[in-house]
Amino acid sequence: MTIQYTDKPIPHPALWGIIYRSSTPFWEGIKEKKLLIQKCKDCGKILHPPRPMCPGCHSTECEHIEASGKGTIYSYTTYSKSPHKSFKAPYSVVLVELDEGPRLISNMVDVKPEDIEIGMPVEVAFDKIDDDLTLYKFKKAG
Ligand SMILES: [Zn+2]
Predict the structure, then answer these.
(1) CA distance 3 to 86
(2) Nearest C-alpha neighbor of 102 from the set 74, 133, 77
(3) Domain ranges of the chain
(4) How are beta strands 103-107 and 70-79 bridged, if at all?
(5) Distance between CA atoms of residues 72 and 141, nearest Å
(6) Which of 6, 38, 88, 111 is deepest in the core (most CB within 10 A)?
(7) How far is the CA of 128 from the centre of ligand 1 (A)?
(8) CA nearest 116: which of 142, 139, 89?
(9) Residues measured by CB to lie within 5 Å of ligand 1, the ion
(10) What is the whole-number distance in angstroms between the Cα of residue 23 and the centre of ligand 1?
(11) If DSSP codes are grouped into helix, strand and coil, which group holds residue 116?
(12) CA 25 to centroid of ligand 1, rounded, Å
C-alpha cells in the first residue's frame, strides 16, 4: 500500500544528493565564519538559495564567492508570543538584502525588536551552536 501525502512531485532520488550538495558549501562556509553565496560561472548571476542549476542560463557550472556580509533590512516581523518553548518572545525575524543582491532570512543579535527598522544597515554575525552547527545571524552595522 502506498500512502500519498502530497500532490507535489517528489524529485527523483538521483537528484537528492545534488540538492544536498548544492547547499553544503554554504553551510560549511558558515562554520568557518564565511558567508559563501553561489554564483553562476557562465552568466555571473548570484544564486540564493543554492541550487544545482542556474535559473538564468541553465548552466550547472557554479562557484561560491565570499559575500561582504553587509546588507540592509528589507523587512522584518516581531513575534510577541512564542510559537514554541524553544523561542523566547519577543524576538524578530529579519529579511536582509545583501549588498550582493540575495535576501536571507535570519534573526538579529544585540538589537531589541523595537529598535529594528527597514533599511537599517546590518552585517553578518555567526552563532556557534556546537561543533556541528553554526548559524548566521545579523547585527547592526557599526
Ligand atoms: Zn547562469
Answers:
(1) 32
(2) 74
(3) 13-66, 70-140
(4) unpaired
(5) 9
(6) 38
(7) 33
(8) 139
(9) 40, 42-43, 45, 54, 56-57, 59
(10) 17
(11) coil
(12) 18
